[in-house]
Amino acid sequence: MASQHPYPVARVGIVGGGQLARMMAKSAKRLGCTVTVLDPTPGSPAAQVAENHIVANYFEADALRKLVEQSDVTTYDLENIDSAVLASLAAEGHRILPDPKLLAIIQDKLLQKQAFEKHGIPTAPFISMPEPNQEAFAAFGYPLVQKARRGGYDGRGVAVLKSEKDWSTHLPVSGLVERYIEHEKELAVLVARSPSGEIKIYPAVEMVFLPGANVLDMLIAPARISEKQTKDAQQVAARAVTVLEGVGVFGVELFLTHSGEIIVNEISPRTHNSGHYTIEACVTDQFEQHLRAVLSLPLGDTTQLIPAALLNLLGEPGHNGTPLVEGLDEALAIPGVSVHLYGKATTSPYRKMGHVTVVDADLSRAQEKATRVKSLLRIKATVPENVPTR
Amino acid sequence: MASQHPYPVARVGIVGGGQLARMMAKSAKRLGCTVTVLDPTPGSPAAQVAENHIVANYFEADALRKLVEQSDVTTYDLENIDSAVLASLAAEGHRILPDPKLLAIIQDKLLQKQAFEKHGIPTAPFISMPEPNQEAFAAFGYPLVQKARRGGYDGRGVAVLKSEKDWSTHLPVSGLVERYIEHEKELAVLVARSPSGEIKIYPAVEMVFLPGANVLDMLIAPARISEKQTKDAQQVAARAVTVLEGVGVFGVELFLTHSGEIIVNEISPRTHNSGHYTIEACVTDQFEQHLRAVLSLPLGDTTQLIPAALLNLLGEPGHNGTPLVEGLDEALAIPGVSVHLYGKATTSPYRKMGHVTVVDADLSRAQEKATRVKSLLRIKATVPENVPTR
Prior knowledge:
2 copies of one chain form a homodimer. Chain A is of the alpha+beta class. Chain A is 26% helix and 28% strand. The first copy, chain A, has helices at 19-30, 61-69, 83-91, 100-106, 109-118, 134-140, 227-243, 278-281, 286-294, 328-332, 363-376; strands at residues 4-6, 11-15, 34-39, 52-55, 73-76, 126-129, 144-148, 158-161, 175-179, 183-193, 199-201, 205-209, 216-221, 248-257, 262-268, 308-314, 323-326, 337-341, 352-359, 378-381. In chain A, strand 2 (11-15), helix 1 and strand 3 (34-39) form a beta-alpha-beta unit. The longest helix of chain A is centred in the middle third of the chain and has 17 residues, at 227-243. The radius of gyration of chain A is 21 Å and the shape is globular. Chain A starts with a strand and ends in a 9-residue tail after the last strand.
């Protein structure tokens, strides 16, 4: 008996209307689904391509109820949402994936680390640090990384303290401290898992960070590591998602240590910035893959067809307001360049306004081209800040 | 001095809100554009992903004026629209591409053939046939193809008369008759051309038609022809678009004759069904390419990364009404399969409801998989027609 789906194939609800939801909504349309987005910003990036938009905060219980009630499956594009309300809605029988109980663990970095520890997932040694305490930091030993339990992303909520001299830079929040891992590279592996336990693993990719800042500068896919290291990274990532019984696409961030060990840094219960290159470079992209997983459809092929480099387009420092896209023509003139703009009505310093994927049969050439794009393409504002009015 | 674009990069208007406009709108969003669609059907496929929808017929002059006035560039996703009104709006200075004067030529199959003849583009010998006349048909000689001047698509408006015995099957309309070309294969080549004259050519693809019907059964990319034949096909197609001074993406349909000659069958002033595989298989897909062309942006790389086969999903005969998608799970379980559904609220026999692209490193395996998908995936209706009610 062949499978049968009504039309729309599913009504998909997404908590969060940012760029991840925007790209997911496009994939949802392709698969014959309709989309409702819940986001506090009218005209959010995803609302521009979704059928319905509930304008509400991620913590409004009534709005979340409305969303799940009008959706066959509800998912999310960010972690900082109300997992307790979602868990109680799931307990009523609403299909919400990944499981809000798993979200509750992942969105709390201490619980996340404890889960890794419990399941034997390799991760940096850590201790709970409910109140930052100079003696306790010293007793744990430097160099260390302090992490807030909640609300961190893109490097926020994380402090690296190389020695006791850095004490003044600690975060005055409840959290944990973990051993600072000297590493060769930071890697990310996307893992998709469906309710039946089917698993698909994307290639390991390499995250290159801006010196000093904990903000992704460029992503190199596939990572320039050995075949064995790639396999190890994929295995560790898949095991982490499996033991957590995750359903959907998960971005697993990893360290490759100097001794060649693979250690899990953290996990995101959603599609991931490091996976945007899959749109151009892989047979099935991460957004369609996530939908296939949460809709219990068979997972797609993760084969990468061509090397890729990925660059985030951040709002230019000193520029606030209506965006002005500088250098678009010059960037698009480079073969293999795809520019993705997210439809955000205003720019501000370092805001994620878009990304660029560069594909090239030669990975180092892809990287060179991405570096050129970085110098060419800038998101400024039509009226720069601090311009003296005369 | 770097190029500068406001945000949105452009307000794109599209006459026609079908699947081509739907896929174009998604590309437009990615490039930072907003989209207004003009289509008579509320909730048309493209309107589901566009900012604005003008619900109007393609021949309503006031609505067309409204569309071009609120768009920085206007384009179209079908030929059967009011080229005269668009030409007068273009004469006022509105940017409408491809040029409505070229559209007026292409939408009239007699004028199109005469343009080919004038510019020395190889095409089947033909004569004008304003009123079908049995003696004139006989004088021209059989086998022949009769074509209506206007309104034909997907094989409508075309009659193949093998001999005088077929006279009764002729079309009672003004048109032309042309020599029936015995051919090895039917090919299509997508050509993109920008206002500056920059040209990018996609691979030659092979169209396989259902025996008897003039409806595309499957598309094979790249075409299984020699390198020389590929080059010839690309050159002839590019020359056709160049001499017509086309701007945008054009689908050029060609015959490869038994003697190895390349002959132009007809040209579409728009993205083309035969180019849907470019979304998965080429660096820059036909929809982004079309937008780059009409927006005077540099054209993208047309390299094909992996072989592909493409299948249209047509409404199942005997089924009218709300769609029921049968076999989706089974189709998606085949590696390399991407299903595109167009968001049409009702199905009817042979209506284009979606398409499937299959990529595989081995072209014949892609074709086999597409054949399997064809037998698995069907668009039926929730209540089949002619079901006796008891």
